[in-house]
Structures are given as structure tokens and as C-alpha cells.
User: What shape does this take?
Amino acid sequence: MRVVFHKNFEKQYKKSGAVQKKFDQRLLLFMKSPFHPILRNHSLSGKYRGCRSINVTGDYRAIYELVGRDLAHFILIDTHSSLYQ
Assistant: This one.
């Protein structure tokens, strides 16, 4: 799986501090096996309809869109409560 990052994702990633290392680990796993159980990869509804989410930590989520079969476009990373208000 190939990945690209939206500019908003990059800004949020830079602000996430200690979560960066955990995301980097999860990203490697995602690239090898996007539906590994640890990631809890699932589709979203509502304002994020058409997107998917993976767990980064107990509270942090990364939201992405599938572009074709082999490309993921990560658009947001933040706490669960901030993303799903």
C-alpha cells in the first residue's frame, strides 16, 4: 500500500508530539497489512462518509481515503473526541 499525506494531516502530525512515533509504527504495519486487527481499520459515516479510520493509540485516530486499490490519502490525525464532535 502506498500512502500520501494531506497538508492538514502534516500540520496535525507535527503538533501531535509523542504520538508521532506510535503513528510511524502503525503506518509501517498499515503499509504491509492495512486490515491488521491491531489497527481496527473501519469505514466511517456522517461527515467522514467514504473515509476510513485506523487506531494510532487508545485515543488517537488517523483518517484516510482509499484512492484506487493501492493508494491511501491520509487526511487527519487527532484525538477521537476532536475528530468526532
